[in-house]
Design brief:
Layout (H helix, E strand, L loop, with lengths): L15 H11 L8 H13 L6 H11 L3 H30 L2
Helix pairs in contact: 1-2, 2-4
């Protein structure tokens, strides 16, 4: 399965139709990948490289059982938080270099 990047945000409306479009585009052979599977791939991409514990895994499994739109929005929030933290860290490094 193709690894999907989480949706860009902010997300103002239910992203389900966008997930369906991605699922349909992903399957050139005619097999349509369910929107939930695409959303779970987005969550996997958002969590890629993050060390998780056994309880984290339980929560992730619970989240993967939610509807596709909820999973996609949580994945997007995680990715945007990571990106914001990365940008803030870079800004701090620049500020320290100019001192």
């Amino acid at each position: 399965m193709t690894q999907h990047t989480p949706l860009p945000g902010p997300i103002a409306v239910d992203p389900y139709s966008e997930l369906l479009d991605l699922a349909n585009a992903q399957s050139p052979g005619g097999d349509i990948t369910p929107a939930g599977e695409v959303a779970r791939a987005m969550l996997g991409a958002a969590l890629d490289g993050i060390q998780v514990g056994s309880y984290d895994e339980q929560v992730i499994a619970w989240l993967q059982g939610r509807d596709a739109s909820t999973i996609a929005v949580v994945a997007s929030l995680l990715r945007r938080a990571w990106t914001a933290g990365l940008a803030a860290g870079r800004m701090e490094i620049r500020e320290e270099r100019t001192r």
